[in-house]
Amino acid sequence: MNYFLFIIKSAAFDFSRNKGRTFLTSLGILIGVLSVVLLTAFGLGLKKYIADQFESLGTNLLRVLPGQPLRSGGFSGGPSSFGTIHFEEKDVVKLSRLRSLEVVVPVYYKSMDVVAGKNTEFATVYMTNSDVFKAINLNTEYGAPFTKQDVEKRSKVVVIGPKIAENLFADQKAAVDRSLKIEGQTFKVLGVLGAKGGGFGGPDLDSFIYMPYKTGYIFNTDKQFIILILKVKSDQSIETAKTEANDILLKRFKKDDFSIVEQGEILSAINSIFAVLNTVLIAIAAISLVVGGIGIMNIMYVTVTERIKEIGIRRALGARKKDILYQFLVESVILSLLGGLMGLLLAALIILFVQRFFPAYIDLQSIMLALGVSSAIGVIFGVFPAKKAADLAPIEAIRYE
């Protein structure tokens, strides 16, 4: 133990003689560790954010989608995975009869220009029924949601998200009972929803506009729906509801024409995509670690050359080959660890600031990985200069000028 403490103290003394070079040598590892830790933290934060978003919508939801977009726990891709069928009002009526379902929400959406006074926004308009607010836990902050009567009467009313309210009217509360135009048609704002969030890999619910679907036939002339949202009465009834809904829809569509997807399946598919993307980004960031390692190796070779005479004197006084090898190897590892620790500290400070806006966080695995990788780089890229130093003949080293 005393032996290695002596080597560490010796290394620390050597670094103190050239602080600038020590810092610059560690800088490559610092940048590499910082990049990898930050990307991992943002990946973890994004995963948590999406999970929270889905949880806020409710766990007992089913979505009826055209085609088979989800297969084997991920998005299947391909032009045929998203089917060409559309759902109609009669499908909604039939599904509404199921006792296992609390509500059935038809959805048709379209992105259009929305104008209020001199302000114009390009927004997504959801044409749906009054049950949408109950189904995905949407609450009005100001005003009130539209009702079943508004749907049947085809009232030209809308409920808008808080972001779109601020962008169009500058104040959420002031938006209530005001008018806006969608593709030239005038609508009255009944209510403004409370903040829900979204936008990081998921839909920005705060920027949506909700309209009675029968009123929306102005824009949806085919009177068809893209998605059906089914709210199941209890979590225990999800499989039953899924089977019953499937049986009803099979009377009108083929098996591969549609799919009934649970919240967890969608979340799993999204997470699988982000996992692959995050791995690729981390692999790219890790290149800087290799560059930093090469920088350490080059500096260690220079250090060996500068200290050849010192090595010769130590060998002449009885130092063994392995003593010289350990000395330079420990110096290399300390340089690398120093960069790793600084990178980790800087990443923690950045994450601490970012957490005000986004739930990024550093887990224990990231810390262990950062320190383990930086140590490994010190060993891998330090062993060759260390071996060169250990192999020097004492007499030739002392005579070296």
UniProtKB/TrEMBL annotation:
Residue ranges annotated for the MacB-like periplasmic core domain, each copy included: 22-246
One Gene Ontology term, aspect cellular component: plasma membrane
Disulfide bond keyword on record: no
Transmembrane region(s): 23-46, 280-304, 325-354, 366-384
Keywords assigned by UniProt, alphabetized: Cell membrane, Membrane, Transmembrane, Transmembrane helix
Subcellular location: Cell membrane
Entry's Gene Ontology molecular function annotations: transmembrane transporter activity
Superkingdom of this protein's organism: Bacteria
Topological relation to the membrane, as annotated: Multi-pass membrane protein
Pfam families attached to this UniProt entry: FtsX, MacB_PCD
Family: Belongs to the ABC-4 integral membrane protein family.
Protein name per Swiss-Prot or TrEMBL: Multidrug ABC transporter substrate-binding protein
Organism: Candidatus Roizmanbacteria bacterium RIFCSPHIGHO2_12_FULL_41_11
